[in-house]
């Protein structure tokens, strides 16, 4: 269907199955570490003993060892995870919000500039554009910010 990326939960069995299934294709597997709508309290309520940073790091290390192509992580974890997984893995960062934008249900958000500085390769931007009074103006402003932030 022309997809470039397929996301899976960063559970070892799931990642292994996805890596095996994509063999011989150009599809890249991305492992979702911890949803950006979760914080430490959400993880504790779900029974995890690790905080967000610790769980994201553990899942990123497993993804790297299994041979996943990249991870989905918040900008808050990107700077810590980049050295852990190396330059060869793609970092996709959701929860991107321009300065002053509402966070909505997202608990770990970051501006495009900050996410790029933290090491993100791809940014996921949805509601700040879709819910804007003028989505084109909002998208153009975000694209301009990304262009200014990208390393030359």
Describe it.
The protein is an alpha/beta fold and 152 residues long. It has seven helices and five strands. It has helices at 12-21, 40-45, 52-66, 75-85, 112-118, 127-130, 135-149; strands at residues 5-9, 28-32, 70-72, 90-93, 122-123. The chain has a five-stranded parallel β-sheet with strand order 1-2-3-4-5, covered by helices on one side. β4, α5 (112-118) and β5 form a beta-alpha-beta unit. α5 runs parallel beside α7. The longest helix is centred in the middle third of the chain and has 15 residues, at 52-66. The radius of gyration is 16 Å and the shape is globular. It starts with a strand and ends with a helix. The mean pLDDT is 91.
Percent of residues in helices comes to 40-55%
Kindly report how far apart the N and C termini lie. 33 Å
Topology, number of strands = 5
Low-confidence stretches: none
Radius of gyration: 16 Å
Strand order, main sheet: write it out: 1-2-3-4-5
Q: In DSSP terms, counting alpha (H) and pi (I) runs of 4 or more, how many helices?
A: 7
Order of helices and strands: EHEHHEHEHEHH
Overall average residue pLDDT: 91
Structural class: alpha/beta
Main sheet? 5 strands, parallel
Shape: globular
Portion of residues in beta strands equals 5-15%
């Amino acid at each position: 269907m022309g997809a470039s990326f397929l996301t899976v939960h960063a559970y070892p069995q799931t990642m292994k199955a996805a890596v095996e299934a994509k063999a011989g294709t150009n599809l890249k597997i991305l492992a979702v570490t911890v949803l950006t709508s979760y914080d430490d309290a959400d993880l504790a309520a779900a029974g995890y003993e690790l905080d967000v940073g610790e769980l994201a790091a553990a899942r990123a290390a497993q993804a790297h060892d299994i041979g996943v192509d990249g991870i989905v992580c918040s900008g808050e974890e990107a700077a810590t995870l980049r050295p852990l997984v190396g330059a060869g893995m793609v970092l996709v960062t959701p929860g991107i919000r321009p300065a002053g934008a509402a966070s909505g249900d997202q608990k770990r958000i970051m501006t495009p500039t900050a996410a790029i500085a933290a090491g993100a390769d791809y940014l996921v931007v949805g509601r700040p554009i879709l819910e804007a009074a003028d989505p084109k103006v909002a998208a153009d402003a975000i694209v301009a910010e990304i262009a200014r932030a990208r390393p030359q």
